[in-house]
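idk why but the lab printer keeps eating my pages so im just putting this in chat instead. protein + iron/sulfur cluster:
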Amino acid sequence: MSHLLEEVFVHLSQQIELLSIEDALNTLSLFANDKLTFSTSFSNEDQVLTDILVRSNTPVNIFTLDTGRLFEETYDTWHRTKVHYNIQIKAFFPEAGEVSSFLQQHGPNSFYESVDLRKECCSIRKILPLGNALKGQLVWITGLRAEHSLNRTDLKRLEWDEVNQIIKFNPLVHWTTEDVKEYILANKVPFNPLTEKGFVSIGCAPCTRAINTGEDFRAGRWWWEENSKKECGLHINPKK
Ligand code: SF4
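predcted complex ->
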């Protein structure tokens, strides 16, 4: 991060520290102008944020990553969300040529064979499209919560994303699962029906399963991997 950017980042962090989510969004949108963006995977957290963004009239670019391997329920939630809020959600896709040559070489389900192949699939279907989606943006709003994973316990409300060179705003960082559920019910927010069937973190269909009571939040993602961090790389901190 350049010295100037670091000063701006520190100033913004202090400015929004004690603000409500709505006021923080207002401050960040004044800073970012039309370069404020929000990535949604239609998880419960992202649905809460969509609701807050719409209610607060925050000018924001909303996008999603369509990996081509999502659950039908996720596409359905995407559609219901668009209709419910009457909003535009831009879809970013993997490069057809990259998917084609990966499938030709390794087959459609090679992510079960090794962590490296799984990461390559995530890179093609998620990381590269994410890079395209964030290009030229200044602030990226995410639904990350500290409770989500051991790798995220020191998550901050405002962070510098070194990989994507962007300021990341995590407004729900300290929300609990109960807080999220309560908001959804109280505000009649459309949600993915899989969340009622034990799916707490929903990604691609072949790589996500429901978890049992007491299991870790990320246990339902890439469950066959024993020694990986269970991250797809969208929110990796390179210093860890
Ligand atoms: S979650 Fe699975 S299917 Fe989706 S991009 Fe990663 S490896 Fe591929």
